[in-house]
Structures are given as structure tokens and as C-alpha cells.
Amino acid sequence: MAEWAFVALGSNLGDRPAHLAFARERLAALPDTTLVAASAIEETAPLGPVAQGPYLNQMVLLSTELPPRELLEACAAIERSAGRERAVRWGPRTLDLDLVRYGHLAIAEPQLVVPHPELPRRPFWQRELAELMPHAER
Questions:
Q1: For strand 112-114 and strand 96-102, is the pairing parallel, antiparallel, or unpaired?
Q2: Which residue out of 26, 98, 101, 122 is catalytically annotated?
Q3: Marked catalytic residue, from 26, 93, 101, 122
Q4: 96 catalytic, yes or no?
Q5: Domain limits at 127?
Q6: Per residue in 12-42, pLDDT tens?
Q7: Among residues 24, 80, 86, 96, which one is catalytic?
């Protein structure tokens, strides 16, 4: 049975709009997954201790039959295919994909926490969720 998944997209290196478009296309192409809606794109200041340029952020709503762990692994593969290198924690990146929510599940595993623990501290994610939530209630 399909479940709603909210995935946050972010980029602050290279052609940021193209990186977000690439992520949307790749997420929509995942097996048993439909991209239902995408929020507006928003530019935000970087978070964390590393000096870097501003981010473009967006959130997408997926309807997917992929289990949460498999969806997270697919997101990591999309990041890598966009040139993401995990050299510096909180550092700049071509593409960052975060699984923010997965249905009504609460998951606390070493590599997967849902809802995403940074959600309360990221007002732009909260705005994007609010924008997409009506699409999930249909």
C-alpha cells in the first residue's frame, strides 16, 4: 500500500536550480513512486558552522510503496549521482535529500530518524510542509 513521504531537497553548489530539477526527476522515476506535488523553491542561509553560500530549498510529496529505509537509500544514491561528496559535516553540497516525514510513522534507528530531528529548527521545512499538506489529505 502506498504511503506519503515528504523529501526535502537542498543545493548550494553549482547550478542549484538544475540540481533540484534533477532530484525531482530522479525521485519521480523511482519504482512504485509518484511525485504528487512540489513546494515553491526558497533561498535560505546555510545552517551549521561551515562558511558557505546560500541554499535553494524545496520539498516534494511522494506517494510511494518503497519502505522508508529503501527510500532513504534511493535518496543517497541520487545525491551521489549529482556529485555529492560527504567530506565535511554540514558542509556545502551539490544536492542534499532528507526524508522529513514518512506517513504517520515514527522511526528511531541509527541511520534513519523520522520525523527528521531537524524539522522543529527549520522554519523553511515547516512552510514547505504546510504548502504540501493539502495534497496529502486528498
A1: unpaired
A2: 98
A3: 93
A4: yes
A5: 3-136
A6: 999 999 999 999 999 999 999 999 999 999 9
A7: 96
Total structural domains within the chain = 1
pTM above 0.85, yes or no: yes
Cα R_g (the chain), whole angstroms: 14
Look at residues 4, 3, 5, 10 and name the one whose alpha carbon lies nearest to residue 124. Answer: 10
Rounded Cα–Cα distance for residues 136 and 107 (Å): 20
- CB-count exposure of residue 73 (10 Å: 0-12, 13-18, 19+): middle
- Our answer to whether residue 32 is catalytic in this structure is no
pLDDT higher than threshold 70 for residue 126: yes
Calculate the CA dihedral of residues 21, 79, 33, 118 and round it to 10 degrees.
-100
Task: Give per-residue burial for 45-59: e unless 16+ CB within 10 Å, then b.
Answer: ebeeeeebeebbbbb
98 counts as catalytic:
yes
Give the CATH number of the domain where residue 85 resides. 3.30.70.560
Contact 102, 3 (CB under 8 A): yes
